[in-house]
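user: can you give me the structure for this one chain? tokens are fine.
assistant: on it. calling the predictor now.
[tool input]
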Amino acid sequence: MKTNILIAIMNIVKTPITEINEYYTSHNRANNMGEALEEYVKDMFSGTIKETDKIKRDLAFSNFFSYLGTQNHPPDFILKGGDAVEVKKIENINSGLALNSSYPKAKLFSSSSMITSACRECEVWDEKDIIYAVGVVKGNKLSSLCMFYGIDYAASAEIYERIKKTVSAGISTTTSVEFSETKELGRVNKVDPLGITHLRIRGMWGIENPMKVFKDFYRSDDSKDFNYMALINNEKYKSFSLSDRKLFEKMVKATPDLKFKDIEIKTPDNPAKLKKAKLISFKI
């Protein structure tokens, strides 16, 4: 059984929930808003938003997902035979995304040192498209949710790796300090006279909020309780089955608040080059 972003969109249109913290804590599925948002996104893809039977929900997850992630390693989950999904919570529509030690990803590669062995071995794969799901939380309420593909948002890995290596090389050439090999930007040993203190130098990556990046095409409606936006490039959209596309486009025609628009977006590696994409929006 397979699922994809179109199925997730249809599920959220059918069953939008804005008070997700209250809903998921009452069902003992989450302890905080971040966990509640992640559980909601999983339910969108698996069609279990209103499923109260834990055993049936677990079975659906097993059918639709090949990997459910851990807190400190990307991604949050992987669709069986499909895309990886990374969920991010922010508290303000103008806030940037804090990515910590991991730079933004256009794609997810099985060779990445950031993923776990369980992720690498969850199915046979070399690379996967990655969906970012960014939720804007105000108090205990989900006011906006934005979903888009990394390939339409982030540059290729080589761009970030080049900067990382340049900074690391510059740090390591500093004289009068003792460095040791590390996966981080650098590590200085024997900082104090006793030689027992070390300094870890870590990168803290961040990226602009997608609401800002795609503001030329989409703006949320503050008068509404909930705003949803998805961006899918045409090549990816055409990769979905004809039956899923027809079902989705039928829902668009039958749902006045669900909009489907053709746009052109900048290519992250070369902004001079535009590519065709689909902008999907929904508000209640």
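assistant: here you go. The first strand starts at residue 65 and ends at 70. The chain has nine helices and 14 strands.
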